[in-house]
Structures are given as C-alpha cells and as structure tokens.
Amino acid sequence: MGPLAGILVIEMKGIGPAPYAGMLLADMGADVIVVERSFKHAGIGPAPDRDIHSRGKRSIVLNIKEAAGLEALLRLVESADMLIEGFRPGVAERLGFGPEACLDRNARLIYGRVTGWGQTGPLAGAAGHDINYIAITGALAAIGGRRKPVPPLNLLGDYAGGSLFLVNGMLAALVERSVSGKGQVVDAAITDGAASLMSVCHGLGAVGAWQPVRESNLLDGGAPFYAVYETADGAHVAIGSIEPQFYALLLDKTGIDFQPRDQFDAQTWPQQAEALAAVFKTRTQAEWCELLEGTDVCFAPVLDYTKAPAHRHNRSRKTYFTDAGVEQPAPAPRFSRTQCARPGQPKKAGADTRDVLQWLGMTEAQIRALMP
Predict the structure, then answer these.
(1) Is the pLDDT of residue 46 over 80?
(2) What is the pTM of this model?
C-alpha cells in the first residue's frame, strides 16, 4: 500500500536525517531495507526494535568491510531503486559502495547522500551537528529571545533541512528517471536546506519588513498578535491573529478595552503585549480553549508531545496511533487513492538478513558465511 509500493530502498544505517528519510519513504509504501553494522546495538540512540524511525523497514546485517559482505550489498544494489547514506564525504567510497561503484552495478539507481555541510566546500569533512549547520544559515540567529538564540530541537536542520530535502530530491530524481531511464546522485546538505527554509526572511528583509534582531519581527515573537502567553494555571496558549479582522476579534473576545491605532506599529507592540499578557493570566488554558478554539482568532493551546495525541482535532484525524505501547505520529501526508498502510513495528537488528539473502539467490553456504 502507499504511492511508493514496489520501490526498493537501501538505507545504510546511520543516525539523524537518514533514518527519518527512510521512515518517510517506508510510510509511503517503499520497501526499505536497513543495512545494519552489526547484530549488537551500538548504543547510539534507541535500539532498532524501539526506534520509531525504524518502523515499517526490513533489517539486515552485512559486514561490508569484508569482500563477501560488500558483494552482497552490491548485489542488493542491482535490484534497488534508491540508496540512502549519511556518512561523511568519501567514507562510502572508501568502503566500496560509493556512487560510482553502485551506479556501475545499477545505472537506474537514485543515490541519496545527506550530510551537514554537503559533499563539497571547506567544511565538508568536518564533524558537526544540527546546531552548527543552522548556525551558518541565519536560522539559529533568528530563533529565541533577545539575550541569545535557542536551538529549535534538531527539527529545523536534521529533519527539515536534511531529511525532507533529501526525500524531495530523491523523489524528483525518481520522476526524472521515468523520462531518462538513468539514476543520479542527490547531494542533500543540511546547510543548503536550512538556507532554503530561510527564504521568507530574505524576502521580507529585501523590502524592509524583517530585521536581524530576535523578537523584533512579525513571526519571531516580537509581534503581540503572533505570540505565546501564559495562562492562570501556568500553561500557555498560542495566538496568531495577524490579519486585522482576526486581531479585532481577539480583542473583542478577550474584552480588552483598547483598539490600537495601528496594529502593525512596532512602537506600540510592548503596550499591546502587556495588555494581552494580563488578560490571558485571568483564565486557565482549558477556559481559553472553550472561548477561543475554533474561532477566527487563530488560537491553539500549547501542548507538549505527551498531551498532543489527546487533542480532539488530532484524535478526530487519527494523527497519532499506538503500537506495542509506543504512541507515535501516523504517516503523512495522506493520499486519496494510494492510501498508506499502518507502519509495521520496528525490528531487531538483522531480523531479515536470511530472508533477504535468500531472495538475492545466495546459497545456504554463502548465507552461513555472512551470518555470525
């Protein structure tokens, strides 16, 4: 099931954006085979059978540092549509499964590479993490309070700038292959993706509508009508009343007895924010939900990840599901005709090694030689 049913993806085991990209493809129906490094969990991140990013995938173990293991991988490449790897530049080549070796075996292969700095550039070979990658794109500097930037988890770099741009590029290459018949390499750098995500700031800045100072702009917490406020019970609510008619409705429903002469006059924003902060402290989050949720105020309660699945809208859309005691987001987006199946449970490392090697046509003796 799913729009990618019949597409075979090889995912070289890694951390961060590569496993999430593989999960997205598996959620949409692709047959994703993860090539693990060993049967023993390396201790980085959750064990494979408890890792949501491993859901819906098959798992094999190959020692690609040995000739027999590398040959098994390349035989698998011959039947694959896509391969995902997230190693530093040059590592896959040294191990023998770089783009040249793989495309020599399968000219139709889409070879996806996701790294922090990209395959080229002066920092390409350096270590780094999400916080470093978004730091050089202007993204980190734009998020947080006046005193200092605040890392937005690793959502903006690893997953938005990395995984989503990798999947987008690989699917575009898959479409192009239907015309050319040829595969290609997709170089997804988190720095490139994060820079693209900042296009709105570049656009607004070009017309003087964005300043490089946190909490001074329309969308960064500076505007009182696009902000978070504390409620009487210590919880929070989010307000997004940008349009004048929505802001007027907010003032009316909250009973605030002033109408700003110019909602967008930044000189008055502190006074507007003070009035809103005071009024939101007069009721609990639940009371504000009863009054404002579902109206054109553009309102929502601020929920943590443990409470989000219980929200009535998320329950109605079945945005989350529980499998083996683990509550997790359902596949997204949704398709009208090629619906996505409920993902299968994550498996232990190497759970499908024998089945996959048999499918490749290996003899029992060859399989035993590859198994520990």
Answers:
(1) no
(2) 0.95
